[in-house]
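Suppose you are handed a protein chain with no further information: no name, no annotation, nothing but its sequence. What can you learn? This example shows the usual starting point.
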Amino acid sequence: MTRPFRFGVVAPIRTDVPAWLDQARRIADSGYSTLLMPDFPSLQPAPGPTLATAAAVTDLRVGTWVYASPLRPAWLTAWEAHSLSELTGGRFELGIGTGRPGIEDELREKGMPVVPPAERLARIRETVRVLRDLDGPDRHTPVAMAVRGPKARALAAEVADTVTFVQMPDESRVELAQLAREFRAVRDVELALHVSVVGDRVAPFMASPDTDPAAVRAADSLAALPADPSAAADEIQRRREELGFSYFVFGADFADMLAPVVAKLTGH
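A reasonable first move is to predict its three-dimensional structure. Written in C-alpha cells, the prediction is:
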C-alpha cells in the first residue's frame, strides 16, 4: 500500500510564546499535517498544555515526539493522551518511546528509578491498553512508536499506527533501510522518518548540537535532506518508493525552507 505523504514539525518553544504561536500559524498555513513537541522536562513547557494551546489557534494535528515512557506512569500518559484527543476533537497523536540516550542520568537527577528496558516497553504496552479503554469504541487516538530493537519492533507491530526507527544522525541508510523493509513485511503501517539535518543545519531537540552535517551527508544518512527544495522533494519521493516512508518529520527551523516540498507532495 502506498500511503499519501504528510509532514510534521517538531516545534519546541525557543522564543516568547506569542512568537511561537505565530510560528505555529505559519506551519499550519504551509500545509503541514502535525505540530509536535519533544519531551524534555525542565527545558520545555510540558507537552500537554502546549499542544492544546497550538490546537486551539490552528487546525493542525498535534502530537508528542516522543514521550519517554520511564518519565511517567502508564496510566498518567494514557489519561493525558485521551484528554488531548478529546480536547482537540481527535487531532492528537501519541508519540511514545523508551527514552533517548542518557535518560538514565536524567532519571537519577530527578530522583526517579532507572527503569530497565523490558519495563519501559511494558509501560508502553500498558499505556496503549489504558488509552484504548479510555477512548472506548467511538475514538481511536493514533499511537506513534519510536523503536529500534527486535522487542520494540514486535510491540509496535501489535499496537502502533505509525512507526519511526531510532537512528544516529551519521548512521548509514543501509541498516535503517533493512529495518524498514523487514517491518513492512510483518505489518503495513505508516512509516515515519525523523529528519534532523537539512543542508548544513541541525535541528534543535532532534539531534545532538555537536552533530556534524558533513559527516551525516557522507554517511548517506536517512536523517538528512538537501537544502534545495526540488532535490529534497525528489529524495523524499525516492524514500517512499524504495522504503515505504510517507510521513516526514522536520525541525521547526526548516519549516519555511521546506514549505515548497510540503505544498508539492502533501496528500499525493
